[in-house]
Amino acid sequence: MFWQTNFPEYQGPEKIVIRRYSDFVWLRDRLFEKYKGIFIPPLPEKSAVEKFRFSAEFIEMRRQGLDLFVNRIASHPELQQSEDLKTFLQADEETMERLRSQDTGYFKKKPADLMQIFKDVQSKVSDVVLGKEKPVEESNPEYEKLKHYIFELENHLAEAQKHAYRLVKRHRELGESLSDFGKAAKLLGACEGDALGKAFSELGMKSEALSVKLQREAHQLLMNFEEPLKDYVRAVQSIKATIAERANAFRQQCELAETMKLKEINLDKLMLTRSDKVGEAEIEYKELKAESEDSTRRFETIVRLMNEEIVRFQEQKTLDMGIAFHNFSKGQARLASSIADAWRTLLPKLEACSSS
Amino acid sequence: MMGSDNQVFEEAHVYASREEMENLVLDDDNSSSKSFSNYRSATSLSPPILVTPADSDPLLAPPPYRDLRNPNAPDNNGNNQSYIEPPSYADVIFRPFDETNPAVNEINGVESSNQFVDSPHSSTSPVSSTSSDYIKITVSNPQKEQEMSNSLVPGGNTYVTYLITTRTNIPEFNGSEFSVRRRFRDVVTLADRLAESYRGFFIPPRPDKNVVESQVMQKQEFVEQRRVALEKYLRRLAAHLVIRKSDEFKLFLQVQGKLPLPTSTDMASRMLDGAVKLPKQLFGESTALVAPQEVGQPAKGGRDLLRLFKELKQSVSNDWGGSKPPVIEEDKEFLENKERMSDLELQLSNASQQAEALVKAQQDMGETMGELGLAFIKLTKFENEEALYNSQRARAADMKNVATAAVKASRFYRELNAQTVKHLDTLHEYLGLMLAVRSAFTDRSSALLTVQTLLSELSSLQMRAEKLEAASSKIFGGDKSRIRKIEELKETIRVTEDAKSVAINEYERIKENNRTELERLDKERRADFLNMLKGFVVNQVGYAEKIANVWAKVAEETSGYANENS
Questions:
Q1: pLDDT for position A1
Q2: Could you tell me if residue B201 is inside a domain?
Q3: Residues of B numbered 388-447 whose beta carbons fall under 8 angstroms of chain A's beta carbons: which are they?
Q4: Of B212, B238, B266, which one is at a domain's C-terminal end?
């Protein structure tokens, strides 16, 4: 099953297009391919549970997530220039469908890339088999710290998000029990009669009214507190993907550098022996050198971009969480206040009962 | 600022469990709520409205709050302005159920060493404490003792006794303070004897025997649970103005050594006794009639099987027989009340259940809020340790505020809940009492059945006598054997007439008891329920205010972000 959303375009005149969830996935994958080193904004998850997928709540959460996704891309200095973004925002549905089927997503690679992957795997396996060290990794202490930070951060955030989700549930449960309690109080009041009966009745009604408020707050909590936390977790996971990309790039660079050295040694040998293979070897060597330089450049770009991105990320997250915290605390304060107000109105009535 | 925070986070790191949150000393500008352990003493901002006179209801709105120390103090650090206009209930709510109301708590003497056992209607029971009588009972010091009698099991049968201490100024008790040791079996005896002597009264039900639990639970836990239950039971008995002066109760509380009340023998031995008597009764060798004094007791618990059968026959004839029984329950008011009590029991049961559910929901809320707070504290610590950028430090500070608020709110929820439990306990108490009501109504109907049975018997005896007389008058000179039989029959009729009078008196007595007890129950219940509602509501208001304040502060601190939100 699929479903669709509308989004107006933010650059130039307004435009509305219909996009499916898989279109967003396509955009994300393309950006991830092209802009290595940049933290691509995260997408809300595909839902595993069929039934849940059509609930109003889920759709609202997903819409919020997709909205954030597109806006973040549009406000990123480099990503906003992406051709793919322009296509995404403007193309008609047929074009999108065609592009999707040509999918060059992360998991579907071009033949050359596939070869590279095989080579990587091969070398890894042979390294292990030969008892060599584990695959080559950067030995940059600052970067190590960053990686450690990101991995730890995900754990902490996931825990916080788990409790936030439970808190939403608790609000719902408290709401339900207040509703049930209110009903029981009203019935008891009907049985008692007189002033006392009225008191129970009023209590019951207040209880039921508060139940509604709690359900509403539960929804707010879900949208404005739990979702941002989940979004934070997803963002961290996106960074992890970038970290993996950087590791790949680094490895590639190292391997090419090594291969190049070997070729250089070989070339020198050939030149010494004045072999007629020198010409061929020279050409190969030049090609390899170019590739190696390319690879190094790619890697250095990733490093540079990541350094910029991490600063942006931290600043953005402080803002995002600041807003989430503000909404959370405002919501809780408002809820508690209205609970106090509601119960308080009962007190003079209860007073009147006892004096009668 | 950072230095003092480290202690907090050290503790958060070491004590991962929820319980340890109690010990967390949260760095706090607003001294209105420190850590739980010094919460009560730290209420430096509470106005000294504490000492309320015993006869004014402390749950009422407090007099307007004036900051006595500094009426014109500007709001420099924001905390002296605590909840000013209108006066906040937050400051009042902790009074009624604390130790700080000794005057109110002493009356009726139902103050407990363990404050959470305090029954709600103890602190504000204007109804039952009309005089200055008081009686205070404490159950303590459980001890294992050995059964002295010869037993098959070597090492003997052990049982637990409890020390029951009474302090009272009621003149019917000879003395003002005394202690005895009793075992649970004695309590069962007391309950049974009271049930016999006070038919028609709403006698508080005794604690269950809990045979299964006594085997399954940990010994110490079980004994403690039982101790608490016994204390509650004895205090309820003491609160009943008639029962507290009963011989049975006095004997139980005062007489040292063995309890001088007849024990309830097993059903088995009763039935055995009765089975032995039955053939003799049927063949007319022992008296086939009910001794008048026994009529004052229900047939069911006794040894007289024949009587039991007769009454059973009568009740069947009442239900299925064609003719109306000789006398019936005609009291309309009673029948209405019975209906009402039955309805009340149903609604109470429902309300009691929902109250339990509400309490659980509140508890869960508090727990989860606390866990959320802890998670954020860990995050804060983490960010601070690894911080490379100012944005991280700022975020850590924000998180800390949220975490602190969440932990505080969690504590408030838990305190709220502890109070809620005490208040709503009234529902459970009265639900338990409905059992006593039902049994009192049963006393009435079984007494009525006895009267009906006797009346039926009387009328059939009289018919027999008439027939015999008619038959014997036809024989000239008298029929010696028949005349003898008529004499015996007339004797039987006389005795049965006596029994009938006793039974009718008993029935009327029980009816009157039912009536007065119903009145008392209605009055007390209304007062107690009203207090329960007030207490519950005040509690909710007070804590909701406190929780609102805690979050309002964080909202304030994070308000900068709101302006940036497009």
A1: 43
A2: yes
A3: 388-389, 391-392, 394-395, 398-399, 401-402, 405, 409
A4: B266
Give yes or no: residues B343 and B239 share one domain.
Answer: no
Examine the domain organization and report whether B260 and B374 are in the same domain. no
* Model confidence pLDDT, tens digit, residues B494-526: 988 988 898 899 999 999 999 999 999 999 999
Q: What is the DSSP letter of B288?
A: -
pLDDT, tens digit (0-9, with 9 covering 90-100), for B84-105: 334 455 455 444 333 333 333 3
Does any CB of chain A come closer than 8 Å to the CB of residue B368? yes
Instruction: Specify whether B348 is located in the same domain as B239.
Output: no
Nearest CA to B532 out of B138, B119, B157 is that of B119
Packing angle of the helix pair B480-557, A278-355 (nearest 10 deg): 130
The residues in A 41-100 lying below 8 A from B, measured between CB atoms, are: none
Whether residues B259 and B341 fall in one domain = no
Q: Residue B6 domain-assigned?
A: no
Cα A274 from Cα A225, distance rounded (Å): 73
What tens digit of pLDDT does each residue of B337-381 get?
999 999 999 999 999 999 999 999 999 999 999 999 999 999 999
Tokens of B117: 């056992």
CB contact A216 to B (< 8 Å): no
**Chain B residues whose beta carbon lies within 8 Å of the beta carbon of residue A353:** 530
Is there a domain that residue B186 lies in? yes
Residues constituting chain B: 566
Q: Which residues of chain B does A152 touch, with a Cβ-Cβ cutoff of 8 Å? A: 382, 386
Nearest-by-Cβ selection for A156 from B340, B382, B401: B382
Distance from CA of A184 to the nearest CA of B (A): 5
Quick count: other Cβ atoms within 10 Å of Cβ B80?
17
CATH number at residue B229: 3.30.1520.10
- Same-domain check for residues B375 and B505: yes
Among B251, B266, B281, the domain boundary falls at: B266
Residues of chain A contacting B386 with CB distance shorter than 8 Å: 145, 149, 152
Identify the CATH number of the domain in which residue B427 sits: 1.20.1270.60
Asked if A192 lies within 8 A of B371 by C-beta distance, the reply is: no
Please tell me if residue A236 touches chain B, with a CB cutoff of 8 Å. Answer: no
Condensed to tens digits (0 to 9), the pLDDT of residues B539-560 reads: 999 999 999 999 999 999 999 8
Residues B346, B217 share a domain: no
Global pTM? Answer: 0.76
Q: How far apart are the first and last CA of chain B?
A: 32
Residues B326, B317: contact at Cβ < 8 Å? no
Cα A12–A18–A22 angle (5° rounding)? 115
Residues of A (180-209) whose Cβ lies below 8 Å from B: 180-181, 183-185, 187-188, 190-192, 194, 196, 199-200, 203
Q: Is the peptide bond before B86 cis (omega within 30 degrees of 0)?
A: yes
Helices (H), ranges, chain A: 21-34, 56-75, 83-90, 93-101, 111-129, 141-192, 194-221, 227-272, 278-355
Mind telling me how many Å the CA of A347 is from chain B's nearest CA? 7
Domain count, chain B: 2
At residue B220 the predicted structure's pLDDT band, cuts being 50, 70 and 90, is confident
From A180, A326, A336, residue closest to B561, measured CB to CB: A326
Is B275 inside a domain boundary?
no
In the block, tokens 């010994």 appear at: B219
Query: Is the ipTM, as predicted for this complex, more than 0.90?
Result: no
Same domain, B200 and B345: no
Residue B407 shares a structural domain with residue B529 = yes
Chain A positions in Cβ-Cβ contact with residue B371 (cut-off 8 Å): 163, 166
B15: closest CA among B423, B420, B448, B378? B378
Q: Which of B60, B361, B555 sits opposite A173 (nearest CB)?
A: B361
Give the domain range for residue B166.
Answer: 135-146+156-266
Q: Do A322 and B395 touch (CB under 8 A)?
A: yes
